[in-house]
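Repro case for the chain-ordering regression, as requested:
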Amino acid sequence: MASSDHTILQFAPSSTALSAKVHPLVIFNICDCYVRRPDQADRIIGTLLGSVLPDGTVDIRNSYAVPHSESQDQVALDIDYHHNMLSSHQKVNPKEVIVGWFSTGFGVTGGSALIHEFFSRETTNPIHMTVDTGFTNGEASVKGFVSVHLSIGDQQLAAQFQEIPLDLRMVEAERIGFDILKTTAVDKLPNDLEGMEASMQRLLALIDDIYKYVDDVVEGRVPQDNKIGRFISDTVASLPKLSPQDFDKLVNDGLQDQLLLLYLASLTRTQLSFAEKLNTAAQIL
Amino acid sequence: MWSKLKGSLCGCLVILKIIKHCQEFSPALVTGQLLGLDVGSVLEVTNCFPFPAREEDEEIEAEGANYQLEMMRCLREVNVDNNTVGWYQSTLFGSFQTVELIETFMNYQENIKRCVCIIYDPSRSNQGVLALKALKLSDSFMELYKSNNFTGEKLREKNLSWVDIFEEIPIKVSNSALISAFMTELEPDTPVTQCDYERLQLSTNPYLERNVEFLIECMDDLSMEQQKFQFYYRNLSRQQAQQQAWLQKRRSENMNRKAAGEEPLPEEDPSNPIFKPLPEPSRLDSFLITNQIANYCNQINGVAGQSFSRLYLMKALHEN
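-- result from build under test --
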C-alpha cells in the first residue's frame, strides 16, 4: 500500500486498542455460525461486542453473525439486521457496545477495508478479528487488527491493517473443563467428587514433577535456575507455620464440623423419608 | 404419543452462553430461551439467547415478547435452529424448586410437547463444580397439576411422592469438530486450570453456612405446613364427631317417630353446616419444600465430601 518514497508518509497511530482480550464464547459462536453458514457463502462476517477496559485493552465478550453477500469486489452487509441485533443485545446487557467486527478466513482480504470503514462509523477504532476456520496454515490462527490511516499531507490514502496481540486465555472455558471441550461428545458431566479426584491427581503429578526437578538439580543433571528455585521456595514458604498440635487441632476441628453437617443432613433425609412413608400410609379418613 | 426423553444434548456454545449470562448478572436471577431440535429420544439444544432482566410493568412485558420474536427471527436468518425447546435459569444455592418454576413449565408445555429447563448455579461454580442440571416435570405430576388436585387420597392413588415431581435428564455435551479442533489448537495442555484452584480452596464454610441457613428456613416452612395439616385433621375429626352426634340424635328421633307411626326423617341434611366438606389443604407446597430440603442435604453432602478430601490432602501435605 505504501508505495511512494518522495512524499512524507504519515501513519496516524491508533491511540487505544493496544491489545484485546477474547472470551472463548466469541470463538465458539463464530465457529458455530461458520458451520451454519449459507451454502454459497465462503465466509461469515459479524459484529463483536464488548467494552474497553480502563487500561485500554479491548474486552471482546460477545458476537453475532451478520448476513452478507459477496461478489468479486463488492461486499453487501445487511445493515438493518446488524442494527436490530444490536438493539436486542443491548436490551439484555447495555454495557456491551460494538468494539469491532470479525470474519472467518486467513488474514485480511480485499473487501475488509470496506467493511472496516463501515464499522469505523459505528465505533471509534474498531478491531478486526479474523478466525481461520479453514486451517490454512495447518493451525488455528486467530488474529486481531486495527486500521492505521495512511495519508500524504491532508489526503487520505489508504488504511493499513496492523496486527495487535490477542489474549486468548480462556478462564471461563476452564470452568467447563477442557476434557469436555476438546472431544466431540461427552456422555456425562463430571460431578463434585470426580472433579475433585482429577484435581488431586493433577496436584500430585505436579508435586512429583517438582520433586524430580529438585532431585535433578541437586545431582547436577539439570542446570539450576534461580527463578524456579525462588518460586519453589515461595510456595513452600506459603504454607503457614504451625506446631503439629495446632495443625492437628485445626484439621480435626474441620473434620468434626463437616461430620456434624453430614450427620445433620443424613438425619434430615431419614426424617424426610419417614414422613414420606407415614404420609402415604396414613389413612385417617 | 412421543417416546420418553432420555437425555438432552448440549453444545458447548450453549453452556458457555448460559454461564456467561448467569455469571454476569449473579446474584440476580436471570432466564433465557433454549433453541434446538427434538430428535427422537434426545433433545438437542443447539443455541440459546438471554432474556432481558424481568420487570413487572405490563408494557415492558409486551416489549419482552417482541424482543423474543425479534431475536428468533434474527437467529433464523443466520440458520440457527429456531425451535424453542425450553428455557434456562440461574439459581442461588440450588433453591429453584418453586411454584413459579412449575407454572413456567406448564406454560411451555402447552406449546411444546417436550421441553427442558436447564438450571445453572453460579454460587456452586465458584467451587470448581459445573453446576448444570436439566430438569423436566414428570408426566404423572403434570396430569395431577392440571387437575389441581393435591389431596392425600389422590396422591396415594397415583402413588406420587415428592421425589417424583422433577425428573433430572442427563446432559450430554457435543461439540462440532471445528470447535474441538480450535480448542485443542488454542489451549495448550496446561497442568493447572482455574477449576483446580477453585476446587482446592479450603474455605467452604461460608457456602455450607448459607446452605444450613436455607435448610433451617425450609424446616420452618415445613413445620408450618405440618401445622396446617394438623389443624385440618383436628377440624375434620371434630366435624366427624359432630356428624355422629347429629346422626345419633336423628336416629333416636326417628325411632320415636316410628313408634308414633310417623314418617322417618331423612338421615342426611345437606343444609346443615356440619355436613359441608372441609377443603383439604394442598400438599403441593409441602412437597416442594421437601424437595428443596432434600436438595440442600445433597449439596451439603457433596461439599462436605469434597472438604474431607481437601482436609486429608492438607494433612498429608503438611506431614510431608
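Ordering looks correct now. Residues 243-285 of chain A form one domain.
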